[in-house]
Amino acid sequence: MICLSPRVTYFLPYIRVILSPLMRYIGDEVFILGRCPMDENDFAEETWGGPDYRRPEEIGPSEIRQALSSLELFNDDPFLRMQALNLDVVDGFIIRLEYGVLQKLIDQEATPIPEVAFLLAQSQMWIFAAYELMRTWRQRAKDIIKWTDNGGLEAKLQEYEKNIGFPHFGRELRAAQIKHVLTDPAIIDKVKSDLRLTHMLFARIQAVRVSIAKHEVSGQKNSIALMPGYARINKWCGALDFDLEGGAYSLGDISRRDIADGIRTLMTVDSPPTPDELREFDAFMRGPSTAGPIL
Fold first, then answer.
1. Is 48 exposed, middle or buried (0-12, 13-18, 19+ CB in 10 A)?
2. Where are the alpha helices (DSSP H) in the chain?
3. Structure confidence at residue 155 (pLDDT)
4. Does residue 233 sit in helix, strand or coil?
5. How many angstroms separate the Cα of 197 from the Cα of each of 49, 194, 205, 267, 270?
6. Is 220 exposed, middle or buried (0-12, 13-18, 19+ CB in 10 A)?
7. Are 24 and 32 a contacting pair, CB within 8 Å?
8. How far apart are CA 36 and CA 15, in angstroms?
């Protein structure tokens, strides 16, 4: 059983007033709260036993592209692979920004406002790009499964192969993928497996994206996000931690670095989650049906 703690961040606006000397602001609408140890030795003691983030020099320059290219229907699409490479290129740039922010936080014992503002903008744009790329692939995978189940693959193939008066590489590519499935129906099993493999990661990306971009709580119609765009400096890697909001409860934190590392691990997972595990995860992400009092 997973127990959820009441949302502590509910009180942050009031803490901001009480502890204003310890806070720095970015504009009028978002603020970053960070506390820094007195020196690097204190920092090392506080971070011991934390998440095992790899240093930038330990990460391969194309791990994200390689991981996403291991997914069926992604690996044979050069345009999807190109976008995955873009994520890799910008990821390497942002990781160094994150560690630079962390170092300045240690050195200055205060939030480095200009650097954090730039990092916040870069982090949000990267998250949006990662979300859209994975959403695009997942929708294509779901469509292929649907057309297989309802017998519509042949009709779609004819649609994509129809002469429209000029060469269209995108349509030719989609037709080639359908032909591949028709030739080898076992591909559908791999597509279904890959959808399960990416389900949890994508759900978490979607949740933080909805909060930041739409100012809503993911999965809750007509909701209002508590503090969309609010983030804290992660003291282990310097990335900005965003709250995974579940209404009156917090479902944890997620950073751009967490998402990037989650993508990188896709090609190292032995097997996808089972349907029961996915149902339990989805129930967790929905949060309790009633919020209860904030203690």
1. exposed
2. 12-18, 40-47, 63-69, 78-108, 113-149, 153-161, 169-183, 187-209, 256-264, 275-286
3. 97
4. strand
5. 28, 5, 14, 10, 10
6. middle
7. yes
8. 17
Is residue 65 a contact partner of residue 88, using CB atoms and an 8 Å limit?
Answer: yes
Q: What are phi and psi of 255, to 5 degrees?
A: -115, 165
Question: By CB neighbour count within 10 A (0-12 exposed, 13-18 middle, 19+ buried), where does 72 fall?
Answer: buried
∠ CA 257-9-212, nearest 5°, is 50
The pLDDT tens digits of the residues spanning 19-60 come to: 333 333 333 333 333 333 334 444 444 445 567 899 999 999
So what's the pLDDT on residue 40? Answer: 46
Structure confidence at residue 219 (pLDDT): 87
> In the 8-state DSSP scheme, what is residue 7?
-
Q: Which residues contact 260 (CB under 8 A, 6 or more apart)?
A: 64, 87, 91, 95, 126, 130
**pLDDT tens digits for 81-98?**
999 999 999 999 999 999
Tell me how far apart the 2 most distant CA atoms of the chain are, in Å: 69
Enter the tokens of residue 247: 């209404």
Specify whether the CB–CB gap between 7 and 226 falls below 8 A.
Answer: yes
Please enumerate in sequence order all residues whose Cβ is within 8 A of that of 5, keeping only pairs 6 or more positions apart, or say none: 249, 250
d(CA 24, CA 22): 7
Query: Given the structure tokens 């806070």, which residue do they identify?
Result: 23
- Mean pLDDT for the stretch of residues 231-242: 97
